[in-house]
Amino acid sequence: MRTVVVGAGAVGGVVAAHLVRGGHDVLLCDADPDQVAALDAAGLTIARQPQDVTGQDVVVPVTAVLPTALPERVDRVLLAVKSHHTRAALEPLRHRLAPDGYVVTLQNGMTGAVVDDVLGPGRRVSAFVNFGADVVEPGVVAQGNVATVRVGEPGGGISDRVREVAALLPYAEATDNIDGYLWSKEAYGAMLFATAVSDLTIAEALGAAAYRPLFLALAREVVERAPVRLETFDGFDPGDLEGSLERLVAFNAASGKARTGVWRDLAVRHRKTEVDDLDAVGGPLVHQVAALVRSIEAGERRCETANLDLLAAYERLERVGRPLAAVVEALPAPRRAPDGPLLGVQVAVKDMIDVAGVVRGNGNPRSMAEGAPAEQDAPVVARLRAAGADVFATAALLEYAAGAQHPGLAEARNPADPTRTAGGSSGGSAALVAAGVCAAALGTDTGGSIRIPASYCGCVGIKPTHGLVPVDGVTPLSPSLDHVGVLAVDVPTAARVLGAVADLGPLPALLAATALRVGVLVAELADPAVEPGTRAAVQAALDRLVAAGAQVREVDVAPLRALHATFEPVLLHEAWREHEALAADPDWFGPDTDRLLRLGRDVTPEQHAAALARRAELLPAADRMLDGVDVLLGPAVAFTAPGTTPVIDSEAGAVEGLFSMGANLTGWPALVLPCGHDDGLPVGVELMGRRGGDAALLAAAATVERVLGEVDA
Fold first, then answer.
1. Which of 242, 345, 567, 605 falls between 20 and 30 A from 499, CA-CA?
2. pTM above 0.90, yes or no
């Protein structure tokens, strides 16, 4: 019986060469004229065939045709085309396949439904093929290894034709559970697809500790969706995914095929891959891999390790971020510049900042459900993309950043203790950073909404100078006080991200601790509202700075506190003005937010103007607090994270923002960084600098962070 091999590429070529060498009558068919011409002219070359004792390339004479030249009748077909070419490859066989003929699928993916649709039921045999091979050039195939091949009837069973095919194919054995092998390969294939978006070899990627949770989660997503009992092969054991990774690293390190065919399609041939078949399996991480592959196919990205870093962040987003209620939406394959200072940095964005194509949810169910997707990025997001950052997720927040949680949404939880709040209003951003999901996130700050969550969660949060970062495309609360800023894992990362979205100028060289001049807000540290454990942690940090040689002097906080009386008239009047139209719908806001916003109805324009004038009058005295010092230092918040965020018009809410609102009124840059713990919960220390002195503040903060880190180490 003549065997027709449709698809004379990597797998089809290796199989055809074995059949020809075994004396079988073989006809090769391929849609690529160059491949057909090369095969007819010089035969089929199998390069470096491992089982050949000579170790030499093997050349076999073959006959090859284009699909239009297939004979009128074919009895047995070995189908070895990419899964997305299945239907096109089968159409010429629709009226050529003999009544008792059949097709053997030697493909990746689940192509059986397409075969049945074109040829009718009962016309296929399924094969599982795991040896590695690549087309090097027309007519030349390199075989990388010898591995598992199984043949079986779809749905189970071993028939006469299965035995016939198993005897025909190289390395093959018959199985009564071919679907179990195919589903196992889908799980392994999900991992291989992920390696292909990088520039690493299969073994390097699978062996990297940083990506281990990603690969395990990808395989697990597929395994959990499999409708059949899965089989083991070549080191992959669906019942032992942890051990499988180690075995697969060894298996692939020993293979002559270092990278997948998917990688070659993406990086070398620049053509479509079989990703649609993988995507059909489903699962959030599988979908993210598919989106990245399609982005590379479209020329929007290149194969590089930054893509694997992004996939690893998506895995942490699902595993860690969602249980903390910190995630609003994962953003697949985000657009970005191919290079830049933030390449390989994943940034989450508070869900009140425009991201093109994404609804600005504002921590409000109605806004999430009824809002229109943003037509373009907010400038701050556009700057992140231009710097090469991956804007990969939107983060949860208090409703409209107004200081209260909407009762229809879960409040973002604290990674240090999920029974506690992450803080507000940028709690989702702080939680994602502190939990290690991403290195940085954007937040907004009107009275402490970056710095309070940073203190509660134990990360760095900077509110820059007022106006330094544009607030266009950001839901306003109080424009006179609103800021967009950064939450980050450390001060250098905060500086990198802020430097990419704002014109900071060059950062000063890091200060030596002995040159750092610190103005201590002693009255804030001594305030009776400060919990003893919080006071002790901040005092201990101050003592470390003194021991390191920092120059410390007390600064009277009275000029800053004098500004506090202007906060409510400004905030309430402007917040009501911004949200009055929505508040006309009594069901739009949650009850606490609605009540808070309506307080602004009673603040007249005259009172608002008077508060702004009084603020301007008091600012020079406040600015003089920074004379002779590099930074002002005090506690970030009077206490550690409570169970839930107190509304701002409560007693606890007033205390919560006591130390943070001053920098919003002055417009100073202000930064919070971790300085210790109280009963296991993070405590933050706040540093403030001069307006426009953001770079200097970051340099001083890096010195403080280094000193505190040296002591901890």
1. 567
2. yes
